[in-house]
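The records we work with from here on pair a chain with its fold. Taken together, the tokens spell out the fold as the letters spell out the chain. To see the layout at work, look at the sequence and tokens printed below.
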Amino acid sequence: MEVPNTGRQLATAQPGAARRIRWRRGWPCALWLAGLCCIFWCRPAQAQIVIESTATISGVIESVGKGEITVRDANDKVSSVRVREPGEDAIVLKDGRRLLFESTISVTGNLPVNEIQVGQTIRLQAQVNRLGRTQGEIKDLQLLTDEVGMAGVTVLEDVNEPAAFALCKVVGRVKKITETQIILVVPPSTLTKKTVLQFRYQEDATATLDSNDYRRAAAGAQVTKLDFAKLNTGDLVCRHLEVEVSGGTQGADDPDDKLLAKYRALSDVPPTEPRLIRSPHFRFLSDLSDREARIVLDKLETMFGLLTKYFGRGPTAPVEGYIVRDLSRWPDGVLVEAEGVRKIQNNEGICFNSSLGSARRAILYACDDHGVIQHECTHGFCHLAFGSTGPTWLAEGVAELGNHWKAGSLAVHASPSIIGYLKQATPKRKLLEIAIPGRTPAGTWRDYAWRWALCHLLAYNPNYADRFKPLAIALMRGQENVSFEAVYGPVAKRIAFEYDLFLQHVDQGYRSDLTAWQWKVKAAKLSAKQIVKSKVKADYGWQATQVFLEKGVSYDVAGVGEWQVAATGESVNADGQTDGRGKLIGAIFHDFQLSEPIEFGKRHTFTAEADGQLVLWCRDAWNEIADNRGAITVHVRRTPE
């Protein structure tokens, strides 16, 4: 299949510290075509990236994740395709590299008015007068999701009488929607000083959507066309995507989009000199624009609430300091810490923590990268609340948790570069290579990645979470005779086993609480006529059974029932779908080792190749099991002689 020549140079950049150091593009790399392949070089230490083939499909969206959509085509084949984030110029691959790639996205559709969300921006035409009153009913609205148009009231047809109604174009942020009315927030205009306008809409009114943001589509949306390229890395990357959404298939707003909508009325022009920005728990001098300042403070307050809820206490003093967008705007003598200035110049940050008796201070020096700010403010939070940030592994691991924590979510949210590095790195770092006592050099972003992985597993896996919080608090308070080994030593082998599984499967959306190993389930050998039943859930990882398999013995397995492997997917039996998803899979667990998977399906007879406990699983992508539904009952017996 022919690969079109884009006529431009493409490049990838090596994985970098998404938090500490912003992405920087590598040197442009020449695109060349040889037969059916085009090759992209990033640097000598990186393997070349090759387009192996291209394809075009249509179908239904099964799931939407960060930088990826999963589509089921007409032949029941499922493809997970990497897509470009809004505002970015590159597609992030599974291994964290960024690929400059020509890509277009179109999400269109008609939605019921009641599916418009508070905080979204819409455009409509209506009759408005100088008193801010409206008349008539609205039938057609446009949902603006890509910063299209400025909020306000524009008069389209002038009228002479002061109280008369004029036809106007109105662009505003949704404050409230009722069964008959939609209420918008708009800035004052030449027509009216009112900033809250109410409009009645017809019962069959719809809102049209036209966006280049893939996140505006949700499971169930129709993909009318998806062109993608398959790379030698295993990634499928989007070239062109067309999606039609309808009722129930519009994607939810990204949290950052909601904050942008919330503060859209504020100026995005940076001030000429630094000034004080503050919220209940943070106080900084900054040259951020009014809009970005409020967004940053809002994120920090959300993070503060999550940390306080988790640890059961928070600091009484605010985190203070400096957030710098442009050093040239800052007068001499304001930024007094040379190390802090150096960090800012390198697009990094640092939090200077100090104590005098019971009085504690945390002073931030940071660039305007939101991830950097959140990470360093987590250090400040811990110092102010507990007196220190603990040993380096804990301090940096918890700071990364604070950076990535999202309200109400138990899933993994991390930079693709971090996830890609952890999955690709060889050899993997062992637990005791990470949890080193005391203060050690902070290291590079790679060191931060290992600490985040360990802390995420301990904080979210229910097998270890109840010990992690008291351990963290004790270490930050400097209590004697407390260490990682002392607390987790008795279950060290279990943690090591689950940690290896975490590193093998971790991805955006991965749930440690749904993949925790079921250590409490005990297994026994089967008698000649015994049949053991096990209920296997679709929305969980490996599940232990009470069956202990004996090497060389033959067993019969039967799966009865149906389950779903997508929120909008059809129910399937234990044979699963044609692509293998939803198939009943088994394995043998013994002495902290897991055998190769055994494909069972509805009925299967096999001879155990080793002694061990039988574990079962509904095959699916490990980061997509949370939306699965249903369970299957599995019957196991020794094969009759």
About this structure: The longest strand covers residues 49-65.
